[in-house]
Amino acid sequence: MVGGGPGAFIGAVHRLVAEMDREFRLVAGAFSSDPAKSAQTGRELGLDPARVYGSWEEMAAKEAALPEGERIHAVSIVTPNHVHAAPAIEFLNRGFHVICDKPLTTDSKTADAIAAAVKKSGKVFALTHNYTGYPMIREMREIVRGGGIGKLRKVYAEYLQGWLATPLEQTGQKQAGWRTDPARSGPGGSLGDIGTHAFQLAEHVTGLKTARVYGKITSFVAGRAVDDDAMALLEYEGGANGVLCCSQVCVGRENGLRLRVFGETGGVAWDQEHPNDLTVWSADGAPQLRRTGNGYLSAAARSLGRVPPGHPEGYLEAFANIYRAFARRIRGEADGMDDPFPTIEDGLRGVRFIEAVIASAKASDWRPIT
Amino acid sequence: MVGGGPGAFIGAVHRLVAEMDREFRLVAGAFSSDPAKSAQTGRELGLDPARVYGSWEEMAAKEAALPEGERIHAVSIVTPNHVHAAPAIEFLNRGFHVICDKPLTTDSKTADAIAAAVKKSGKVFALTHNYTGYPMIREMREIVRGGGIGKLRKVYAEYLQGWLATPLEQTGQKQAGWRTDPARSGPGGSLGDIGTHAFQLAEHVTGLKTARVYGKITSFVAGRAVDDDAMALLEYEGGANGVLCCSQVCVGRENGLRLRVFGETGGVAWDQEHPNDLTVWSADGAPQLRRTGNGYLSAAARSLGRVPPGHPEGYLEAFANIYRAFARRIRGEADGMDDPFPTIEDGLRGVRFIEAVIASAKASDWRPIT
Amino acid sequence: MVGGGPGAFIGAVHRLVAEMDREFRLVAGAFSSDPAKSAQTGRELGLDPARVYGSWEEMAAKEAALPEGERIHAVSIVTPNHVHAAPAIEFLNRGFHVICDKPLTTDSKTADAIAAAVKKSGKVFALTHNYTGYPMIREMREIVRGGGIGKLRKVYAEYLQGWLATPLEQTGQKQAGWRTDPARSGPGGSLGDIGTHAFQLAEHVTGLKTARVYGKITSFVAGRAVDDDAMALLEYEGGANGVLCCSQVCVGRENGLRLRVFGETGGVAWDQEHPNDLTVWSADGAPQLRRTGNGYLSAAARSLGRVPPGHPEGYLEAFANIYRAFARRIRGEADGMDDPFPTIEDGLRGVRFIEAVIASAKASDWRPIT
Amino acid sequence: MVGGGPGAFIGAVHRLVAEMDREFRLVAGAFSSDPAKSAQTGRELGLDPARVYGSWEEMAAKEAALPEGERIHAVSIVTPNHVHAAPAIEFLNRGFHVICDKPLTTDSKTADAIAAAVKKSGKVFALTHNYTGYPMIREMREIVRGGGIGKLRKVYAEYLQGWLATPLEQTGQKQAGWRTDPARSGPGGSLGDIGTHAFQLAEHVTGLKTARVYGKITSFVAGRAVDDDAMALLEYEGGANGVLCCSQVCVGRENGLRLRVFGETGGVAWDQEHPNDLTVWSADGAPQLRRTGNGYLSAAARSLGRVPPGHPEGYLEAFANIYRAFARRIRGEADGMDDPFPTIEDGLRGVRFIEAVIASAKASDWRPIT
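Structure tokens for the assembled complex are given below, as produced in the milestone run.
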């Protein structure tokens, strides 16, 4: 693991979910750019001190130098956004598989560089748009892509949080600090942190490509250097359209990622905070409330569950599904998912989405997503 | 009553709710432009045939000619949008109070003419944006306008239906027919029919004025002459912003009018399909689920209920609250609502909203709402 | 109307719903046993003072003496439970149709006397177990009686309120006063006031007859002379069983009437506080969420709605459905409901249910409901 | 681990959750009474074949013979109910900590024997009534035991499933097989499998002791040798009472464990299928909807979460909380929970609950729980 030192949230999540299905075992890490902090985290995790490194450069070099069978198989990159590209490229170049947090990176140019490294290396690269790991997102995708709601017309995507409604970054809170610092997060604030999740999920579920966007971004909190709120009208290739809203100033909202899609003959709706429920509308019949784990679901959705119906699966299980699929792909095994996890392509589109919304808002005009 | 003949939906609703609180009694009407149909409806309603008229012009003239105490006190106009202005002006001019369905009319020019007639007449004019009659909308307004969620930042308004997902107007269905005919509905389809409700409700609850809009409108159903779907980014005076979505092609959605408002210290959310529930978020405490009829509500919200908590009140009761307030205003009585019902001003803004969104969509640029 | 004077809750509800569909018009009443209060209510309602009576005996005699066509058609009895029987019998005997609040009366003996009067008179007698008027209760009944969930196994009925969690009757509150006074309410407190609703609804929906009960009753509030909480195990003829809970001391619960029924191949669930939703489970498919007003409902359920899907109908509309069916039965018209309203038979069973639960609790043994 | 071989459900769950927080690592097991199957499971799990045993007797003897530091620290017993007592006693006697699935065992006599072994050994014994591990159950307990709803009056506990609505055991399904075989499950069917969960949870949350029960048990499926449905009226010490319903024939219900508790000044409600929500009612204010992970929760409830608010935690995380607390207790560390997990005492009461309900149903009389 690269990143995930003291005070990190997402690093701890990655560690837990990577090991949930016994697919991976954490054996080495460069947990912080501060060697002392890296060592501290390594100790807390009970790792062999010889494999707790003071920098990711050192880790890449020394792990690559270990005999085959003793070195790591894959690296998990969970640093702030501006420290994704360099280690990803380095580990890929040294022949390691990479699983990287989102958004891919801070700008298109470095994104393209990562993509080139992925291609050249032939290694597996996964991006942890973890919400795609939910069974009911998978069911939604099966329905929508399988023609279950007809030709698509409307996409409503939103991701509303409230935790940045005050200038939390001025209190020294680490999570808020890097997420509101453009040098570390990139040009997008809420756009990069959560907007990219909503954007990716909409394309993942529908199979539609977003042709162009009209964006409006706002920094509601005084002194904040990045957006803490954004809205974008969306036009998809083929005629569907929609809207995407993301915000981190909606007081009281926890992690409100919702997606609704409507086609000519039906609709589907999902809410991340009650992730085991999926509402399905049809033109003539009563709405259905499909639930995780049941035999009436698609095989793909069933394959992502671990426990029987009515035993709620949550955020961590969905996230672990990404790691499980990553492991299977490394082994070359089949998986219940045709695209077992978000890839470099999702990452490229996410970075371009951020750039397009910001450019659109600046120009007060539509911008394409290439 | 003017309008509300055979096959009408909203006319029957108006009749029921006008009488619910024994404030009004239907005694006369011009129910259709076809005298035979008007007479048929009058017979079905058990009215005195002498007061069932073949046209609204005849009705206005003959009722005005009756001795005081025998003539109607007020007229309810429930015709398609293009037949609001002329009868409204005529009845106002003849000294009758008017309660009129929404949107006010089809264009700004005739809207201004009605406004002038209202002013000149000194009579009471109410517009049936009926959703303002819900107790929990009133509670929401009390909270928001009373500073309960702080300075406002975000407004999310949506009104999604699915009943026009197919070319229903081509089957002879009367409701679909006039609503999709620009000659009768005006230039807005979904915008006029339901978008104006969402727009009005957002301003009603927040007290904010919409400064400008950026709109996108779509006619998804082939051959449809008006929009059946619209989205608009909104900027409010004072710095808040938001988004409004309306659609009549969201298959499976019934009457999905929802409003969420967030300020610096809290948020509120309401869904018309479960209208007795109001979610209230604050920065520090647990979310509240306020419910109609309880003692912890504001006096204004309590005044709009008829039955104890847990006895659901619905669409008809909310609508009847508009008529009850209209009656009280005619009598000059105090009412629990400071603005007892939507007025000509709401009507003017609604027409300008329709025009601004369409103009914006055409120009691909923001347009003010004056 | 008999009863419904100053401070009454249910009387005002009856007046509103009786007139909602223009089937009835209130023209006469004996609103209180105190003639001055009766006159006051009559004035407030704008009635002809000549037809506002000082007692129900006077009203029955004088109305009967009016020429046919000028006298009332039917009487609505909305007094406390101990004043149901005498006026009901008197009005029936004088040839008037009767619609009476529940429970029918305070004991089996007077219940039988009313039943005899109904039979002898040949007049229509309706009991306002108003919850049967909800469209989704009707849908539930159609499903269950139509075999849609197979042979029945389980019934879970509950009716939980919290408004009597404190000794409200000691504060002079009128509603609490008579409901907790066995001389006026009969031997059942919560059992009579709300338990009979749950009992009746369960039999109404399932078509099952309750064979015997095992009851436990409690008076949680010190000094209360009747139960404020009861539970009963139920055995139905044919092998199904279940449980019924009613309580008026569940703090925070408003009007929590819920019914769930399970059979060999499916289940259904309904909650009065969100009455437009009905959950339907089947053995193999996804749960359905059926909603009022939709074309996929049974004709019977559709016939009980007034507005399109998504326009919530509530307690008053459901109650009005009872009056509308009562009117149609008086006219001998067909109605969408095979049993258009609860009848004397429901009333008899309700009284026997109260008596059986109390006797069972006293004896700590099962008691039949004959 | 003892048990958890091919086809087992709960064994796989125990393995996953035991390792979730890196507190335990599975190193040895006797996974089946069939040595070949045990070996197969060991291979699938990648264990050292030397520590995969053909019987739990062998495992206990050989692990105890290993040098300290090389032997297991604790054993997880996940066999059918009739194979809990013997291995538990044996491993306790040999000085191992034990964590055992519920119900404790099949009868009071063997339950007492386990209790004696626990006492004599001085080792930590945990019973996996896993639902106590949910953060919102912990919050509920803090509220109720902290006096937040006043003196307790009512408890409504239910646990409804539908998976045994047909004779599934006749198809060879392993889970259904042993659960409906009294030789393996003990005398209780649904009572033991899920009724004990509801019973334990109610006492856990309230701190009340159930004084006596009146039960009714049913085997709805023809030929089934144990109950598949039960109901019990409950009387608690101190005056509260309630009802407990469990069923495995409620078609469509997945894992419907719900608990509601009401006191003199408030109430609380929780539903396992949406476990991150807790409804809290008070006498005067609006209901609260408390949610996992928030700062407004009690410290105890917060300590049981792993991720921020809005990131759903589910069944596996709650279960893992039991294992984490078990590990901390073994190490003698403080934990956020005063009772970090259900103990032998919960187990004893569960067995007595099963026996009391069955005896009560047989005698048609109340039975104490000693």
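Chain C touches chain D at residues 149, 153-154, 156, 158, 162, 165-166, 214, 216, 218, 220, 229, 231, 233, 241-243, 245, 247, 249-253, 260, 262-267, 281-283, 287, 364-366 (CB under 8 Å). The two ends of chain C are 32 Å apart (CA to CA). Further analysis is deferred to the final report.
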